[in-house]
Amino acid sequence: MIVALVGLTGCIDNDLPYPVVVPHITSITASGAESVDINYDDRTVTLTFPETTDLRDIEITSVEIDQEIAVPSIEIVGRHDLSSPLKFNIRTYADYSWKIIGVRNVQRYFTVEGQIGSSTIDPVNCRAIAMVGKNADVSYIKVTSLKLGPRGLSTYSVDYTVMRDFTHGISVDVTAFDMTETWNLFVEITDASVEITKVNPWAHEVYLTSIGTAGAENGFMYRLKGDAEWIKVDESDITSDGGTFLAHIKGLKPETVYEAVAVSGADQSPVVEFMTEAAVKIPNGSFEYASKVAGASYYKFYDPDCGVADGEFMFWGSGNGEGSEGVNGSANLGIVITYVDTEDKVDGKQSVRAQTSQLAGMLAAGNLFTGQFAGLVGTSGGKVNFGRLWTSRPSALKLYCKYSTGTIDIINSTPPGVTLTNSDYDRAQIKIALGTWDYKKYGGTLESPVHINTTDASTFVDFTTDPSTVADGNLIIHHDGYYLNGGDKVAAETGEWIEYVIPLNYHSMDVQPTHIIVSCASSQFGDYFTGCSSSKLWIDAVELLY
Description:
Low-confidence stretches: 1-12
Number of strands: 44
Structural class: mainly beta
Helix content: under 10%
Radius of gyration: 29 Å
Largest sheet: 11 strands, antiparallel
């Protein structure tokens, strides 16, 4: 009987599945790198270097991976040949393929005499195309400039000064770092002499792009639609790139129709009509409309019964949650972290006070943000869906803040590269970002697309490098001063109300945003549960500048 039982137990298989633990490279540095882009979807790191960098010998100086059990198949830190992608696996309970790509930021150009517009440079297919007017002879074209490889390090099989006949194009070998690319250069005829090719209107300004003849007197005129007189754009507001010229016209009125023409020598483009954007105000920016959550003593930051369109709907959220009216937040654990303050304010009857607190040694940073709290993660963290629908493009965020803080008394963790001790003071952070975030990729909702889980650092978004971010700005408030957009520290009495203006840094001037994120936190590293448990940040009179 005993033997039979032993034999039976010997047939039992362990069918328990391994957990799915996906590793992410959260930080990487390399000597001389100008920028780092980490794409979690493709599991790709792109390192961009100056054009004179030899990609065959790149030193990676540090790397951070978010899973402690993760083991790379190669030693990532060290010297590598990135002239082709560096491929490897990171193993947890399964293998996940990653690659590191090295890219040189090479400035390339190809211009010819009498050129119309800018050249088209296609580095993937090694092609360059210049356009000339309909009366030009492509069998006799003078090239005025050519650069297709790293500055000072490239050799060319044909000297551009002797190139003339572009009837069938001209091929040229460009060699640098013992690698040769064969480029094909073309010159093509266009019927256009001067034409406005792009109109990019903002609320108080417009960017116009036109093609014309290189070397001619190129310019623009504009007027309010219906006016008889044209206004000539000052030369100081016009820049040229060969036969392409651009104007930046300022001082326009929002939601107003204008007309513009481009001029190149004796030629004038057809009239182009455009309307400037609306200068939309941020809803409930002074937080006049707030109401208590049903059956609770804490506030939500809108009032459905106020009768004012600005304040009837939820634009601002907080980690308090909305309890019985929405999603449970910290208030349901007995920790209220965001308050209405009727005693200390700048504008109207009240301000918002974001107040860091703690429960059993776990820090909870006071916060206020555009979006909605999305739920608790047990007692160890929370989830937030950031963002609200938005299409206008402001130039800055203005707001009033007051900050009270002390030294850090709770340290759980910090971002890669940041070291803090209990002798360091806490600091507050206000971030603004405009973007085109797709909720299917970023995990949120259609209205609030960016989902952040404070217990999972891989969900955190760096708006300075995020590819879907159109513009961003950042304010860090210390006990004795502040930093704007990574600039030098400005000494200030931050314990008193101060008007702050956070300029927006636009990553693209052409892309229209779909959402806006404003995030205010009384402890900058609250997402890492690190800070001073008595920090308080007052916020009032939030306004967008255009």
